Amino acid sequence: MSDDLRRNMALFPIGIVMKLTDLTARQIRYYEQNGLIQPARTEGKQRLFSFNDVDRLLEVKALIEKGLNIAGIKQVLQLQDPVPEQTEITVSSEAKRKELTEQELHQLLKQQIFFSNANRPSEHALIRGELSRFFH
DNA sequence: GTTCTCACA
DNA sequence: TGTGAGAA
């Protein structure tokens, strides 16, 4: 399985994303309304975030903390990722931009867990449990 | 118990 | 952005 596919496959409920990004559910949904992220949905309409979404959320958070508004962030993200539309699973059209190696992917995962540990040491187990499916 | 949408101070 | 209501 390609790394690219894996990054778009992870499915976190909003609660986990809140812990991972330290954003409120309100903010996360607000950013989605503004097109900053495109989380998938379950049949029950609950949001399912991929690692790409979490990654983007962290960028958004960083930008917000720098004093940017939604409009400003939209521009920044558009420059980085001009309309993802839908992530096609076609083998032929993959790897147009950044391909992550196994090591880089694991490094990213470690970072996520590190952030969580720094903020809420008592919730290691929960988050690790949710992320465990990404480790082999 | 968790998340969703909508709405209001 | 926060919070609460009401539904799923």
Automatic annotation (TrEMBL):
UniProt keyword annotation of Transcription regulation present: yes
Occurrences of domain HTH merR-type (ranges): 11-79
Domain of life: Bacteria
Keywords of the record: DNA-binding, Repressor, Transcription, Transcription regulation
GO terms for MF: DNA binding; DNA-binding transcription factor activity
One Pfam family matching this protein: MerR_1
Keyword Transcription regulation: yes
Full protein name: Transcriptional regulator GlnR
